[in-house]
Design a protein that fits this description.
The structure holds two protein chains of two kinds. Chain A is of the alpha/beta class. Helices cover 38% and strands 16% of the residues of chain A. By secondary structure, chain B is α+β, with helices and mostly antiparallel strands. The chains are: A alpha/beta, B alpha+beta. At the A-B interface, helix 8, strand 9 and helix 9 of A face helix 1 and helix 15 of B. Chain B: Keywords: Acyltransferase, Transferase.
Chain lengths: 453, 467
């Protein structure tokens, strides 16, 4: 789907006109291209105390290892920053953040198009003292508000370290890498909790092929977001098994052949779906490392008009199938080492949506089982996470009437809908090795849409 | 009748013959078959066969793979499609270095392609191969009359404008009518249905028996679709997801109400209707064959091995044999060479050109006199357990895109014997026969591949744990 308004305000006379009229000016987002730099300029790290070795120094050192041009505040205000990384992990009272926050303020106007602000802080916990809890929770409101102020396709996100996690941990760095990169183009105003996952040997890790040697299964892969997920996982080096209902086999074949994967025609609601998926992945590719529960359907009806067919079908496909397949894999020990399960939730499962009681139930249910599966997969060194897309330009959203569609697009901080690739990038990130400290989380890919905020 | 190949002793069934290695069937793919003028009315043979190949490539991850050879063909073929199979390969995701050639043996094209590939694999000439076929009645070639054709050729060779005009002066108005393709037998002028009507009458096959077999075909095919049997054998095409001709809700009453269309001019009461005959159909199929080593290297499943095949031809022109009776001759010869009896099979896949073709063939094998005089046997070949016949339906229900039928049957049979062997722990065997125009018939034996495949182990484990 093309957003013709977005195209119009980014070129020629209509660009000038939109500016003069003060109309929303959504930017063309910076998206991943192999070989392109991680960030569109030098990276400024703020929050450190000069003369003291602290987390900010560790973060700067990590960024240097990625061959970035890294500066620490205070810095020249004339730079065009590719990203600003704010390290607030040491803040224990509200007053502790002001210096760092105000240091960021001085550089915001010189943030490059598609630039990034990433805030590293500690997650509030149940046992925190009041001042610590206030400080850590305060960061939440700061990040969400700051993200709404950024323009030019820039985004603001946060990484919240839970107890025990250190800024140098692989999962913290993986999250930082993702938020800095073009892969997080449509992730905005989000705070991702990262714990201390098991040790991970990053030597020889190739950031351009993070899934090399991994076998991934994607359900609902014949079209839309699922097809894009399959392409993205394959691009990242995975061998991909694409799954969809037999009736979608023609499109599924095209996806499989495009990405040199294998097609498995299968109804995910079948009793033996988990067994057949496992058999295929093991027999053909020698294992199963990544499982993406993407298959989903819509049967919108106001609850007053809801039929058993419409309710049950949505629950069966969107929720029950995920439960049964994962349950089977866990039961028979079907997962290979350090498995990653990523399930498709939706902002409708967070905020609710009129006419979508069935869909909302199913997608909120996904968030629920994701937390439970995180616990069950932990002994395997694995993770379970959910990705909640907001307004994404697909055939499905193209069927929304014009005015509501335009409103839904502009209701996000990025003033546009996302692309299927944006959801796929988030899933590929959560499926990659080194993210083992990230589990039980719901990552929204919504451009910080007002809905579900 | 003695085996036709005395040089080759009858081997122990289940063992590779003559020191040759096995040719195994990895799997198959086809498009759902469409009724003529239906969903594929704008599809060419090349498009359909490419679609069948693409689904096979996707199922088995063969993208960029150089297959030893791809062999297939079409019965109704445009002259521009002289390299139909190679062109389809070039339009597929297979390596462009995959050789291919066209083969044609009327309705036996697909099965003969399987036999050819299997033989090359067994001889060690290729490690892998794809056999198949395609046909479309909807996109059949239409030729110009002989008079117009001669004029056009003459004009194209003419050296001057005058000579060119002169060439066309010989064209008469009647020459302007196009020639539509005909499946009538060139030597008798009779359609296949009329030929079969004679055979049907000769063997006294009743209308009721034919309708019952047609009903079973529809019911079996519908059940197979419902059970997901075709989930890994068929890939939808152009929005068609199931065989278009399939009528799951048909009944003996409905079939019994149809008017006979063949044999209406015979002395006996006509019995063959549109319901118990195959309709004109569009479709394509492909089967992946390989050496065991090639399959193992690629972690591909092994469903069955091609044991042997035999082709027969009958004299329906001057002799008294029925046009579609050649399989009745091919099967006993094949069984004799393999040391097998007619009862030694778990499945019988007898192509339903017409319901009565199957019934006349079975009747012939049960007939002492016929088997002695026509087949040179000591007595009746025997009868089969009808419960094992075309258990997942056949051409009356699925339709019969001529060259595509062999691939459909072989893939189905291979999957059936593999499942049966996995279930019982003993080898399972299927007998396949396909009749063809020109009095031709091909029979083949496939047998579960016997080897321990990792997939089977996995399935068993998971099932046990589930239980």
């Amino acid at each position: 789907m093309t957003d013709s308004y977005l195209n119009a305000v980014n070129a020629g006379f209509t660009k000038t006109l939109a500016k003069k009229l003060g109309l929303p000016q959504p930017a063309v987002l910076r998206r991943y291209e192999p070989g392109a730099p991680l960030v569109p300029g030098p990276v400024l790290v703020v929050g450190g105390t000069p003369g003291v070795h602290d987390d900010a120094d560790d973060v700067a050192a990590a960024l240097l290892r990625w061959d970035l041009d890294v500066r620490q505040a205070p810095a020249d205000a004339s730079e065009r920053w590719g990203a600003v990384v704010v390290v607030l992990t040491g803040a224990e009272r509200p007053g502790d953040v002001s210096q760092a926050v105000l240091a960021v303020a001085g550089h915001l106007r010189s943030l490059a198009r598609g630039g990034r602000v990433v805030v590293l802080s500690r997650a509030p916990g149940d046992d925190d003292a009041p001042a610590i809890a206030a400080t850590r929770q305060g960061v939440d409101g700061f990040v969400r508000s700051l993200a709404k102020e950024l323009r030019g396709g820039a985004t603001g996100n946060g990484v919240q370290l839970t107890a025990g996690a250190q800024v140098g941990d692989p999962a913290v760095l993986a999250a930082l890498h993702f938020f800095l990169s073009a892969k997080s183009a449509f992730v905005d105003g989000q705070l991702l909790r990262v714990g201390d996952g098991p040790a991970w040997d990053a030597s020889g890790f190739d950031w351009s092929q993070p899934l090399a040697g991994r076998v991934a299964v994607v359900t609902g892969a014949a079209r839309g977001i699922g097809a894009e997920v399959a392409r993205t996982l394959a691009r990242d080096g995975a061998k991909v098994v694409v799954v969809d209902v037999p009736a979608a086999g023609e499109a599924l074949t095209a996806v499989a052949n495009e990405i040199k994967g294998t097609a498995l025609q299968l109804d995910v609601t079948a009793d033996d779906a988990g067994a057949r998926i496992l058999e295929h992945a093991r027999a053909r590719h020698g294992g199963l490392h990544v499982l993406v529960h993407n298959a989903g359907i819509l049967r919108d009806k106001l609850l007053a008009n809801m039929t058993p067919e419409k309710w049950d079908a949505v629950i069966a496909v969107n929720l029950e199938s995920q439960l049964r397949i994962t349950e089977h894999l866990l039961e028979v020990g079907g997962f290979s080492e350090t498995p990653h399960v990523v399930s498709l939730a939706s902002t409708s499962g967070i905020a609710g949506n009129r006419g979508q009681t069935n869909y909302g139930f199913s997608k909120a249910g996904v968030i629920g089982h994701t937390r439970a599966h995180a616990r069950l997969l932990a002994p395997l060194g694995g993770t379970a996470n959910a990705v909640a897309p907001g307004f994404i330009e697909t055939d499905m959203t193209a069927s929304i009437p014009l005015v509501p569609r335009q409103v839904a697009r502009r209701a996000s901080s990025l003033q546009q809908g996302g692309q299927p690739i944006d959801v796929a990038e988030a899933i590929a990130f959560l499926a990659s090795p080194g993210t083992t400290g990230i589990s039980g989380q719901v990552l929204r890919v919504c451009g910080q849409n007002l809905v579900g905020a | 009748m003695a085996p036709r190949n005395p040089a080759q002793p009858s081997p122990t069934p289940g063992q590779p013959t003559g020191g040759l290695r096995d040719a195994v069937i990895v799997g198959g793919n086809r498009v759902p078959f469409a009724r003529a003028g239906g969903k594929y009315s704008r599809s060419s043979n090349q498009e359909l066969f490419t679609a069948a190949l693409e689904g096979l490539v996707a199922r088995f991850g063969l993208q960029g793979e150089r297959i030893g050879e791809v062999v297939g063909g079409a019965v109704l073929k445009h002259s521009r499609d002289f390299n139909l199979v190679r062109e389809s390969v070039l339009g597929s995701s297979l390596s462009p270095q995959t050789p291919a050639y066209d083969l044609q043996q009327a309705c036996a094209t697909g099965l003969e392609a399987v036999v050819t590939i299997a033989n090359k694999i067994r001889l060690g000439q290729v490690e892998s191969g794809i056999a198949g076929g395609t046909d479309t009645v909807s996109d059949a070639p239409i030729a110009v009359s002989e008079g117009l054709r001669r004029a056009l050729l003459e004009a194209s060779h003419a050296k001057s404008a005058g000579a060119r005009v002169k060439a066309f002066t010989k064209v008469r108005p009647k020459d302007l009518a196009p020639l539509t393709p005909s499946t009538d037998e060139p030597r008798t002028g009779l359609s296949m249905g009329e030929h079969q009507a004679i055979t049907t009458a000769r063997w006294g096959i009743t209308r009721e028996a034919q309708d019952a077999l047609a009903l079973a075909s529809h019911q079996h095919l519908a059940a197979a679709w419902d059970s997901g049997f075709f989930d890994d054998l068929v890939t939808p095409h152009r929005g068609l997801v199931r065989d278009q001709n399939l009528r799951a809700d048909t009944s003996l009453e409905k079939l019994g109400g149809l008017k006979p269309v063949f044999g209406t001019r015979l002395e006996t009461a006509p019995t063959m209707t549109a319901g118990n005959s195959t309709p004109l159909t569009d479709g394509a199929s492909a089967v992946l064959l390989a050496s065991r080593e090639w399959a193992a290297q690629r972690n591909l499943p092994v469903l069955a091995r091609v044991v042997d095949a035999e082709t027969a031809a009958v004299d329906y022109v001057h002799g008294h044999e029925g046009l579609l009776m050649a399989p009745a001759h091919a099967v006993p010869r094949l069984l004799a060479r393999q040391g097998l009896g007619l009862e030694d099979f778990d499945f019988y896949e007898i192509h339903e050109a017409f319901a009565s073709t199957v019934l006349t063939t079975l009747a012939a094998w049960e007939d002492d006199e016929y088997c002695r005089t026509e087949l040179g046997l000591d007595g009746a070949l025997g009868s089969i357990d009808r419960e094992r016949l075309n258990v997942n339906g056949s051409s009356v229900a699925a339709g019969h895109p001529f060259a595509a039928t062999g691939g459909r049957i072989v893939a189905t049979a291979a999957k059936l014997v593999a499942a049966r062997a996995a279930q019982t722990g003993r080898p399972a065997r299927a007998l396949i026969s396909v009749c063809a125009a020109g009095g031709l018939g091909v029979a083949a034996v496939v047998e579960s591949a016997g080897g321990v495949e990792p997939t089977a182990t996995t399935t068993t484990t998971s099932t046990e744990t589930e239980a």
